[in-house]
Design goal:
CATH topology: TIM Barrel
Number of helices: 12
Structural class: alpha/beta
Order of helices and strands: EHEHEHEHEHHEHEHEHHHH
Distance between the termini: 47 Å
Number of domains: 1
CATH class: Alpha Beta
Helix content: 40-55%
Strand order of the largest sheet: 1-8-7-6-5-4-3-2
Shape: globular
Low-confidence stretches: none
Radius of gyration: 18 Å
Strand content: 5-15%
CATH architecture: Alpha-Beta Barrel
């Protein structure tokens, strides 16, 4: 197998832009991709949880990925989330993504069914065998009730194209546990926005950013400060961003972040049912959080 790229830096997981009638707005997505690239991101992830993967039709997922690949035009890697209910559907999507020109994948555990450890490992091994491309394993036991433990990652080290981990257990201890157990075998990304600074101190390679897609320049600046070890400046910027970052840790995170993008001119709040746009007191409360933070936006 040829040498695979080692991903690092900010890889934002983007929303899937939609019209009010819930149809895809690929032109709006293209504009958002360009704004993210301009901010200096190192990669792009479409069709993840924030991208409403599970609510998209199969042809829509492929259309979003194809448009991202077209817009990016080789400037940065384009990954697609893989979030299917069956192994067969996941393998088919991976093969189609490979044919479309994806740079790699971010693979989630099986949706709906909660597998045991044996089934979880079989799932990831089967999907790894479906492509020569590199991929990132998305571990989010909080959201998907399947925990890929450090010991399981140690057993998966024989998969050469499993290059990266998106660690979203909300337990920063995992960063050190993984380093102690498997060393530098994997590129470690944090996937919890408001644990970024804590994880950066412990030693990560990248950040799958969620809420930061609404304020990409500040988001990129924060990452750069952690790379340069400028912790006092990073802490100050982090404190400003924290109320916005917490929007990524709620059941309505898709609606919250789409509303944030609307407030910063980078999209619209429209979502795919069964989700609905925010309403009433909740919408006013989230708008208040967003607007108060933006009023204090750093120069």
């Amino acid at each position: 197998m040829p040498t695979l790229p080692q991903w690092s830096g900010v890889f934002p997981a983007v929303v899937t832009q939609m019209h009010e009638d819930q149809s895809l707005d690929l032109d709006a997505s293209a504009r958002h991709f360009e704004a993210l690239i301009e901010s200096g991101v190192s990669g792009l992830i479409v069709c993840g949880s924030l991208g409403e993967n599970q609510c998209l039709e199969p042809d829509e997922k492929r259309a979003v990925l194809a448009r991202a690949i077209e817009v990016v035009a080789g400037r940065i890697p384009v990954l697609s989330g893989v979030a299917e209910m069956t192994t067969r559907a996941a393998v088919e999507y991976i093969k189609d993504g490979d044919a479309l020109g994806a740079s790699g994948f971010m693979i989630m555990p099986p949706m709906v069914y909660k597998p045991d450890e044996r089934e979880t490992e079989h799932w990831f091994r089967t999907l790894a065998a479906a492509t020569p491309l590199p991929w990132m394993l998305y571990n989010n036991p909080v959201g998907y009730h399947t925990d890929v433990t450090p010991e399981m990652f140690a057993r998966l080290t024989d998969l050469p194209n499993l290059t990266s981990i998106k660690e979203s257990s909300a337990n920063p201890r995992r960063i050190t546990e993984l380093r102690n157990l498997v060393g530098e075998r994997y590129q470690l990304f944090t996937g919890v926005d408001d644990l970024l600074l804590e994880c950066a101190i412990l030693g990560i390679d990248g950040w799958v950013a969620g809420s930061g897609i609404g304020f990409p320049k500040e988001n990129q600046r924060l990452w750069a400060l952690t790379r340069e070890g400028r912790w006092d400046e990073a802490r100050e910027l982090y404190r400003w961003a924290q109320p916005l970052m917490k929007l990524d840790t709620h059941l309505h995170f898709v609606q919250y972040i789409k509303l944030l993008c609307q407030e910063t001119g980078l999209g619209k709040e429209w979502v795919r049912e069964p989700r609905q746009p925010l309403a009433g007191e909740e919408r006013e409360r989230i708008l208040r959080i967003i607007r108060e933070a933006l009023a204090k936006r750093p120069a």
